[in-house]
Task: inverse folding
């Protein structure tokens, strides 16, 4: 089951320049500010900046669907023909992410929020 599309992650080459741009756009400070990931929460959305995104194969922003069991959903998507690009990874605070590529080359991301 999915809780909707709540996160978008942008691959960036210049993290400082991207932080300035998205800070100006969103009007908030990042909730996560690490060398490997910067995350913002604005208008009910998570917006992430990934300085390693291009190295992972990201060619543009990746939308992430929030699910309650990331490993089960990921396995089902791979079984349905998706190509695993990034296996489940904890990006801090227990938040899990992963993403796949579909048959048309589109990236589809999954997130699972930490247990309450």
Result:
């Amino acid at each position: 089951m999915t809780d909707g599309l709540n996160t978008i992650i942008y691959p960036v080459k210049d993290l400082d320049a991207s932080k300035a741009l998205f800070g100006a756009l969103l009007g908030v400070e990042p909730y996560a500010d690490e060398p490997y990931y910067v995350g913002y929460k604005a208008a009910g959305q998570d917006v992430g900046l990934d300085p390693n995104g291009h190295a992972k194969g990201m060619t543009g922003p990746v939308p992430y669907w929030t699910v309650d069991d990331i490993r089960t959903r990921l396995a089902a998507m791979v079984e349905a023909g998706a190509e695993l690009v990034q296996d489940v990874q904890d990006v801090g605070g227990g938040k899990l992410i992963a993403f796949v590529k579909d048959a048309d080359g589109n990236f589809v991301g999954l997130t699972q929020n930490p247990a309450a």
